[in-house]
Specification:
Blueprint lengths: L1 H16 L1 H12 L7 H12 L3 H18 L1 H13 L10 H46 L3 H6 L2 H10 L5 H4 L1 H23 L1 H48 L1 H6 L3 H54 L8 H8 L1
Helix pairs in contact: 4-6, 4-10, 5-6, 8-11, 10-11, 11-13, 13-14
C-alpha cells in the first residue's frame, strides 16, 4: 500500500514537472486579462435568481421597511430639540409620543433585520453549498490532462472559495446595496427639505469624492482578485507538499519546497501591502472629505441661523443634526 501511494505521488510529481503541464500553466498565466461579458453571464445569473424571485421580492419589501424605520430616530431629533425641549415654549406632552414612535421604529427594525437574515442569508448559504457540489461534480468529470495542468490544492481552494460570490446575488449583498441606495435617496430628499443650498453644496463636494472612490476601487479590485489567486496557489502547493512529504524526503527536496513556499508568501505579502496602501489612502481621503463637509455645514448653517434668526429653516439644533 505504501509503495502504491509512493508510486502515485511520484507519478503526480512527474506529471507536474512534465513540459506539457508546465507550459500549459505558463500559458495560462500569460493570457491577457479580459473583462467579463455581462451579456454572456446574464443567462447564468438569471438561472440562479429566477427560482428565488419571490424570496428576493420579500427581502426587498423587508428591506424597505427596515430602512424607513431606521430613519425615524434621526428625523425625530428635530422635533425633540426644537419643540419638546424648546426654551421658549416647551411641549412636554409630545415627549411620550416621540419616545413611543422611536421605540416602535427600533422594534420594527430589529424584527425586519432578523427576518432578512433568516430568509436571505440562509438561502445564500444553501445556494453556496449547492454550487460547491456542482463545481466539484464538474471538475471530477474533467480529463486527466486538466489535472496535469492544475495543482490539486489550487482546485480545492477554488472549489471551496470561488462560489461564495453568489451570496451577493441571492444573499444579503444585493438587498443591502438596494437598501443603501434607498436610504441615500430618502436622506437626500429630507435634507433638501431642510435646506436646499446646504444640501446641494455638500453633495457637490461628495460628488467629487465619488469620482476619487471610483478610481480607488478600480485600482484595488484587481489587487484583491490577485490575492485570491495567489492564496489559492500557495495553499495548493503547501497542501500537495504536505501530502507528498514522503516523496519530497525521498528526493531530498525540502529546501526547494521551502524556497517555493517562501516565494509564494512574499508574493502574498506584497499584494497585502499594496491593498493596505490603497485602503489607508481611501480612509484618509474619506476622513478629509467628512471634515470638509462638517466645515461647510458649520459655515453655511451658522450664517443662515445668525442672519435669519427665527425665520430660517435651519435652527441651531438642525445644524447640529446636519453635522451628525
Amino acid at each position: 500500500m505504501g509503495g502504491l501511494r509512493g508510486g502515485a505521488m511520484g507519478l503526480s510529481s512527474r506529471a507536474e514537472r512534465s513540459p506539457h503541464g508546465r507550459g500549459a500553466r505558463a500559458g495560462q498565466n500569460e493570457l491577457p486579462k479580459r473583462k467579463p461579458d455581462l451579456k454572456k453571464l446574464w443567462p447564468q445569473i438569471w438561472s440562479l435568481v429566477a427560482p428565488r424571485k419571490g424570496l428576493l421580492l420579500a427581502g426587498m419589501g423587508l428591506m424597505v421597511v427596515n430602512r424607513v424605520a431606521g430613519l425615524v430616530l434621526p428625523i425625530s431629533s428635530k422635533p425633540l430639540l426644537d419643540t419638546v425641549l424648546s426654551p421658549q415654549h416647551p411641549r412636554a406632552d409630545l415627549l411620550p409620543r416621540i419616545i413611543a414612535l422611536v421605540f416602535s421604529a427600533m422594534l420594527v427594525q430589529a424584527i425586519t433585520s432578523f427576518s432578512l437574515t433568516q430568509l436571505l442569508s440562509k438561502a445564500g448559504q444553501r445556494l453556496i453549498a449547492e454550487m460547491r457540489r456542482q463545481v466539484q461534480r464538474h471538475v471530477g468529470l474533467l480529463s486527466v490532462a486538466y489535472y496535469d495542468e492544475n495543482r490539486t490544492g489550487t482546485l480545492v481552494a477554488r472549489i471551496m472559495t470561488d462560489v461564495e460570490g453568489v451570496r451577493n446575488l441571492v444573499g444579503t449583498g444585493l438587498v443591502d446595496f438596494v437598501g443603501g441606495l434607498l436610504t441615500a435617496v430618502l436622506a437626500f430628499l429630507w435634507l433638501l427639505h431642510l435646506s436646499i443650498p446646504v444640501t446641494l453644496t455638500v453633495f457637490s463636494v461628495m460628488g467629487v469624492f465619488v469620482f476619487f472612490l471610483q478610481y480607488g476601487f478600480k485600482t484595488i479590485r484587481p489587487i484583491f482578485r490577485d490575492r485570491g489567486k495567489i492564496n489559492a496557489e500557495v495553499t495548493g502547493r503547501l497542501t500537495e507538499s504536505l501530502g507528498g512529504v514522503r516523496v519530497i524526503k525521498g528526493y531530498h527536496a525540502e529546501e526547494r519546497e521551502a524556497a517555493v513556499f517562501a516565494g509564494g508568501v512574499e508574493r502574498l505579502l506584497a499584494n497585502v501591502m499594496r491593498s493596505l496602501t490603497m485602503t489607508s489612502t481611501l480612509s484618509a481621503a474619506s476622513t478629509t472629505v467628512l471634515g470638509l463637509v462638517s466645515a461647510i455645514v458649520m459655515w453655511l448653517g451658522g450664517h443662515n441661523v445668525l442672519g435669519k434668526p427665527g425665520r430660517s429653516a435651519l435652527t441651531f439644533n438642525t445644524t447640529c443634526f446636519w453635522r451628525s
